[in-house]
Amino acid sequence: MVETSTQADAPAQPRTPLNRERILGTAVALADEGGVDALSMRRIAQALGVVPMALYKHVANKNELLDGMIDVVVGEIDPPAGHADWKTAVRRRVLSARRMLLRHPWAPGVIESRTKARATPTPAVMEYLDSMIGIFRSGGFPIDLVHHALHVMGSRLLGFSQELFEDTPGREPDPDAMPPEEMAARYPHLTELARAVAHDQESVVGSGCDDQFEFEFALDLTLDGLERLRLRLRDTP
Amino acid sequence: MVETSTQADAPAQPRTPLNRERILGTAVALADEGGVDALSMRRIAQALGVVPMALYKHVANKNELLDGMIDVVVGEIDPPAGHADWKTAVRRRVLSARRMLLRHPWAPGVIESRTKARATPTPAVMEYLDSMIGIFRSGGFPIDLVHHALHVMGSRLLGFSQELFEDTPGREPDPDAMPPEEMAARYPHLTELARAVAHDQESVVGSGCDDQFEFEFALDLTLDGLERLRLRLRDTP
DNA sequence: ACCTGAACACCGTTCAAGT
DNA sequence: ACCTGAACACCGTTCAAGT
Fold this sequence. Notes:
The structure is a homodimer.
Chain A (H helix, E strand, L loop, with lengths): L19 H15 L6 H8 L13 H13 L11 H18 L3 H11 L5 H16 L4 H11 L1 H4 L21 H7 L1 H13 L10 H25 L2
Helix pairs in contact in A: 1-2, 1-3, 3-5, 3-6, 4-6, 6-10, 7-10, 7-11, 9-10
Chain A binds a DNA duplex through loops.
């Protein structure tokens, strides 16, 4: 059933050599079709017509493969439109992210679980968030309000809701983590936000934000919006 | 916390007989400790000091066990406070749900994936949503606005964001599904909502709501709230 | 009629034998 | 030095042998 490069019924086999890109593309397609539960190293290999072990020369393990899949699909989100007002720009970008998530329904779950397992979101997610923060900043939002805004947007940003930058107390620093100066250069808006939040939280141990406060802030903004809507609808029926 | 039967050679006496409740309690505790990935039938059995196959007399399979775990933790959410205004009542209930989710971080993912796999959410989830709709209705929300409100609340209701009642076109009706009249008696508010939505969508095939419209409605309400906040902050610094 | 150990078909990954 | 088949330690669930 699994055709090897024998001369029998299969044509000349390695016309397209295996590489990371092809592996990720096949993995994304398989997850789109059958969900992430049906995705296995063995199945990817089978779809590519190679032996399972061949994958391990291009991806370290399955987790690293999932990280690569995340960056593939997040890379499909349209870049920000340069010259629109902040609300239009955010709206377009979020709707583009939603279209991506409709194509790849497995993505929110994978992004969430991988972000929880890693110390930091994957590079493409970082870039997406950084440019989203940039839109708010250009639109005149003070940095603290941008922080609230991200929590308010919540699951509408990437389809899930858990906090992306959660403090995990018992975690030793990653030996090959990105040095702070490179971080600041690559993700200037995220860095600015992180510094502002850390400053606000000076008294608290750790640099995480006050999740309870942010949750209630977003909840109350939502409830106030609904109350305003209810009153408007009642007064103008 | 989780007791293992220590001695293999000691004659095992069933001091506490196995039942569904004990199995679910142990499963929830194991998931709380090690996450849902570390949860296996074999491990639950080991924690209870029984052979894996013994579980299958009380739960049909692992999916049914996950459904039971959902109902256990959703049952931990405080019931609605009877005599508060709608905003206070919703706020309290959602904050109670959040406390539950902090105790059981695996719950959103399991609820979401099981709801997707089943035709309908589990009974406890149905009851939670029904009573939440009831709060809005008592607070003077027209039924259509309640529908929007649930979409706006989104992930804040149960920690995840995908639609709970998604149309899955190719699904044969469950033979032992609840009859409509029992449905209407058990979940009156949900039924009212479903009827209103179906009426609005008369022209469209299927009874699902317009997800794209609801997404944009919620997104715009959020963005408007943020803009109002920005202006207020700018004018009163 | 009941209980359960062995077995089946999977999985990610290691490892050493073969080239 | 490379490649890869076999093996390991898991998994959910079936099934038939033993009681």
